[in-house]
Write a structure and sequence with these properties.
about 190 residues, homotrimer, mainly alpha
Chain lengths: ~190, ~190, ~190
């Protein structure tokens, strides 16, 4: 994987893991609940993406992703009470995480299938499924029925990445713009 | 894939996509919510089937399926308000969709594993999982606890297909009878 | 698979299938509902494990697992009314099932990847996901938010197995101890 994208990838996993851990904190779960929701949210979307693209699941290949999720869970466990509104932090983290992860998903989908259409699908899937799994398991309203802007933002971010990539711009610029488009769509709503 | 079955397949995807879009309409989602639920419901069951059978996921291979889902979503978006009772239309579409899709799933399972038992499983899975995913995400009562007849109908339809297929009848007849059995079981309940 | 582990595996599937069937009984579903929840709970966790480890799904290879689930469903269907408190039986069966299945999952993960970390993940996953799927579909409180001890118990059981296995103890002892640790953690809570 191109180094820029690898950084995006780790950042996306850590950010989603943090939203999972914050959800665990709001539900007053114990540390195992933090680990579970951090890992599920952190790697859930990417796991489904890899299964569908028929490539080895990323965290089985590279276990550092699990370490990132667990370290994030521990960090949130010891600091969440310091935050005035965990819900607001969660919303902003979610916005950044989906922006980053939509780009990573689109990159992987485009690289493996060459199809812009599948790339937008894998981008949207990677950016939304982790959060949807988290919300379904935690019994919270999920993105599909309550926050459709999440889906719109990931689609726009993934599409921007794909269009720029196919136009021949360097990957770093594509990823930055794609992420920015997704974040603007989400934050501006 | 045998042409008859390919037509069944596209029809099943379109019908399930329509039920997803109708659910989006009942929940008053925006167009992205229509796309999401149409695609999830349209290809969800078949995706799990393909993962379990360890074959390439059908819509990654043949992107026309995604186009069918999206076109269906757009069509429902502009016409759903014309329908007097979206819920009744949804119920009937669901009945036809599961009948069609149970046969497709059974066909694919039988062809790939040669096992009638697995074929009935993949038929039932393909016919019910898309709708279950849709209902869980939309927060509606799902087929398992509220509409067990869905499961019964897909099992009967898939089993009819498998029995006739193994008895050597032509695929088209098997598929027609299988679909009819599933639909009768569902509609007659 | 080593014979001891194969027995553990069948026992885990049957026990989880029984909890699924008991849930169907509490929800007063018909026999198809029993089959569906027994199969989903019995093979659900192991199916996700196999997909993630990229090996053929165990029940597609060996259909006896499906027969075990269905026989268990029939057995529970005809006897559940004899039990004074189905909920208590369900809780105990769940405790045994997760203990057994965490060990099987850890064994398979360790054998296939050689990584203790992934093995603990697959153990925890195999031990909890079937029950989580069952609870989400049946609309009951799930393990993540209401019974975190389930997760803790599977992690402890899987970790004990992995540590003893890597220390070179015979598989049977590792599995017995791993299962006992998980069960003690669950039952003692």
């Amino acid at each position: 994987m191109i180094p820029y994208i690898a950084w995006f990838d780790y950042a996306g996993v850590a950010l989603f893991a943090a939203t999972g851990a914050l959800t665990a904190s709001r539900k007053q779960l114990d540390i195992m609940g933090f680990f579970f929701l951090a890992i599920l949210t952190g790697v859930g979307g990417g796991t489904v993406r890899d299964l569908i693209l028929d490539v080895p699941v990323f965290w089985v290949q590279q276990q550092a992703y699990l370490v990132v999720c667990m370290a994030t869970a521990v960090g949130v466990y010891f600091t969440a009470h310091l935050v005035e509104s965990r819900y607001h932090v969660l919303l902003w983290l979610d916005a950044v995480a989906l922006s980053v992860y939509a780009v990573v998903g689109a990159h992987k989908g485009l690289q493996l299938t060459g199809s812009p259409f599948v790339a937008i699908m894998t981008g949207a899937m990677t950016g939304t499924l982790g959060g949807i799994l988290r919300d379904v398991l935690a019994g919270e309203p999920n993105a599909v029925t309550h926050k459709e802007i999440y889906i719109t933002a990931t689609v726009l971010g993934a599409a921007s990445y794909v269009v720029m990539r196919m136009a021949g711009f360097p990957v770093f610029a594509d990823a930055a713009i794609g992420g920015l488009v997704a974040f603007t769509a989400r934050a501006g709503a």
